[in-house]
Specification:
globular; Rossmann fold; 6 helices; Elongation Factor Tu (Ef-tu), domain 3; alpha/beta
Length: about 280
């Protein structure tokens, strides 16, 4: 997996914040949808990401903080300039040695920006999520939190631009509560527009007790579809794409091992997917 230091930051573009809207309720973790208008010359596709550069200072002096974001909607144009949509979760972390609370550099910087503010973007950079050439291919898309971003753009692209998709597309998406199901809840449900497509279904995984910080039952949501998942996994033209936090690995290994009958069977099938370039992931 590539590290941020491996990405070229020499290509810089100025972007203007056109819109910044909080998608989650006030008493939940803050996730914002931000729309950027970028200077001409910057072109990004739904299977790409872009970077944000933030000036920062630390004990070793001033520097630049670089953070990558997936495209969260189909790219558009405004007065000849590219419009791109991103999802940003306001983050913080506790230093495991000092116990001090630190605010995420890029996420807090972006969440604090207002319409009209200027930021610096880099890229574009390739994502591992590629639309298969075979329109009969099956896609299992699994995202948690802001991991919905690349799949929202991906699904829209398939049905609006690729069209005539014949394979099954199954989206599994995890959030603490229904109100945090970005683009899949009653308020912000543009992905529900694709429920009319014969090949598309989306399944929600929630925490049983979100106010108690119980884990999201993503594994249960997948296991509930065991029969169909087994049938899809038996086909050679099946792809699995994953986006989310590190803990998603444990959930998926548990779910797929149970569905297929053993850890060994899942390890073998996953190895086949990886070898065939039919498994791709972005882990935050």
């Amino acid at each position: 997996m590539a590290h941020l230091a491996d990405f070229n930051t020499e290509r810089k573009y100025q972007a203007t914040i056109k819109k910044s809207e909080r998608l989650t309720p006030p008493d939940t973790e803050e996730v914002r949808e931000i729309i950027l208008e970028v200077d001409p010359g910057f072109e990004v596709r739904v299977d790409q990401s872009f970077g944000v550069l933030v000036k920062t200072s630390g004990e070793f002096g001033k520097g630049m903080h670089h953070r990558l974001y997936s495209v969260a909607d189909l790219p558009a144009k405004s007065n000849g300039k590219p419009l791109i949509t991103m999802l940003v979760k306001r983050c913080s972390y506790v230093d495991e040695f000092s116990g001090e609370l630190y605010q995420g550099v890029a996420s807090n910087y972006l969440c604090d920006r207002k319409p009209g503010d200027k930021i610096t973007v880099t890229g574009p950079f390739e994502l591992p999520f590629v639309v298969p050439e075979d329109k009969q291919a099956n896609l299992i898309l699994i995202g948690m939190g802001t991991g919905i971003a690349p799949f929202r753009a991906f699904v829209k692209h398939i049905y609006k631009n690729v069209k005539d998709w014949k394979g099954k597309i199954r989206l599994f998406y995890g959030a603490r509560s229904g109100l945090e199901l970005l683009y899949l809840n009653n308020k912000d449900g543009d992905l529900t527009n694709y429920y009319d497509e014969e090949t598309f279904e989306a399944f929600h995984a929630l925490s049983p007790r979100p106010h108690w910080a119980d884990p999201i039952e993503l594994d249960k949501a997948i296991e509930d579809r065991a029969a169909e998942i087994v049938e899809i996994l038996s086909q050679a033209n099946t792809y699995i794409y994953v986006a989310g936090y590190e803990k998603i690995h444990e959930m998926l290994n548990k779910a797929f091992s149970k569905i297929l009958g053993s850890k060994e069977k899942w390890a073998t099938r996953k190895a086949e997917l990886v070898a065939g370039k039919k498994w791709a992931e972005i882990i935050y």
